[in-house]
Fold each of these.
Amino acid sequence: MINPASLADLQAFATVARLRSFRQAATELGVSPSALSHALRGLETRLGVRLLNRTTRSVAPTEAGERLLSRLAPALQDIHGALDAVNAFRDSPLGTLRLNAPRAACELVLAPLVARFIAAHPGMRVELVADDAFVDIVATGFDAGVRFGESLQQDMVALPLGPAQRFVVVAAPAYLAAHGTPLCPRELQQHRCVRIRFTNGTFYRWEFARGSEQFEIEVDGPLAVADMPLMIDAAERGLGLAYVYAQYAAAPVAAGRLVTVLDDWCPEIPGFYLYYPSRKLMPAGLKAFVELLRSTG
């Protein structure tokens, strides 16, 4: 007779199969990759069937593993929902809240909210993952994500997060003295610009609007970076113009190290949104975070 699999082993298998990575699954579950691998081998031995195909570079469910996962995932969700419902009877929720957000949203709006949330709910842990790529928060095990409103899926609940945002074009005074000041966005194509590359390999096209006129500009320059603080640093060093959130540029502009240009082409835009799946039983930690967000609005 096959020994029954424990709930922990089934959860371990479902997490590895969903993330296709022992390392990422181990991080999510709070165990070591070697312990996780050992647990999965034990589960396969007890069931008498291989559930995962492993190579040095990848992990993927076998046909048997896919079939088990298709039945197991909704069952585990029901179990977690039932256990989380107990949180409704506590004075403060317990558990882990997993949030996925662009790096800028983490730094500009989420960090102070998370600090207030942890102070108000000491039994909660928060995993805040800074990720500029678009991810499926359900498939990757996040409770909620943060994005701009136009990029949200229609089946998600969305709440405004923080104030309206604004991009600005900045440059060092020395750069403008040497190369001139652009008077309209299309003149940027004759300037050196510090570009930012998305995780999918594409470069961000700078967006401008004035009145009814809206367009994007493909800029060029000697330097490309992965985040806006590096763009600010490069602009301060005179390497070119940078297109960044106004909050990032506020301090160096106030100190005179940077100057804004094309201000009339850079209007405010709607800010970030917190989004999460529409479901009847919201995890208690997420519910408490949403309540905090609404109380600050």
Amino acid sequence: MATRKFEIICEIEPATRPDVMHVRHQIGVLSKVVSAYLIPDNHIGRATVSSIAVAHEVRLMGGRSIACINARDRNVLGFRRDLLTAAAYGVNEFLFVYGDRPETGARSDDLTVKAMIREAREFAKQTKRDESIRLGLATGLRSLPAWKHSADFLLAQVTYSTDELLRWRSSVTFDGPIYAGVMVLPSSTMARKLSGDVPQLAVPESIIGRLEKGNEAGVDIACDLIKEIYESEAFDGVHLIPVTRYREMAARLEVLLSSST
């Protein structure tokens, strides 16, 4: 890998108990290879420690944080509360998402991602923080709605094919950075479950076959994909979802990135 700016935004496993030690451990392990940490919000419909609170923890450890906020669990007043809390903690980067289906109960339909962008921009003006706040959105590998151009950066949907990513990237014009989604599949069992639960993230049988030969194949597949994305020069970095393999990915990425110096 030749030397040039290429960011790795790593999604960490959020805390589902009132203890952030596991979060701190992930940050410590990944600190040499990660540009920023994405903090999920009520991950996969389960309650977690506030993404804003965890983003503050990341800042205290010297890392750059991006707090994810989902529309599913909030009304407008609740979102304004979160913006105030973030301002008090000095959290300036956000990813706004629609939110996964909750495990129990109904989702709130009082807030949309489009409204979150509008509210956050207005809040930034009122608090004179326009220059410091960065807002990101997730996008599938399809045409980009006009309103998403108001974002500062985009995280593209996870895929397992560089060719598919490049076809999509060539069809999209966007002024800010775009990060390609890369997931580390820990096992063939998890890959099959993901394919059944989330059709748009269906894992090709060829990759499931590699995983069945050994679970370490998931790390190999992710590293190969990151290298191909880097060499394509089509993206500004990757949004890495290491799942449980953050230690292995940290070690492999350190070797991969050291080859650029």
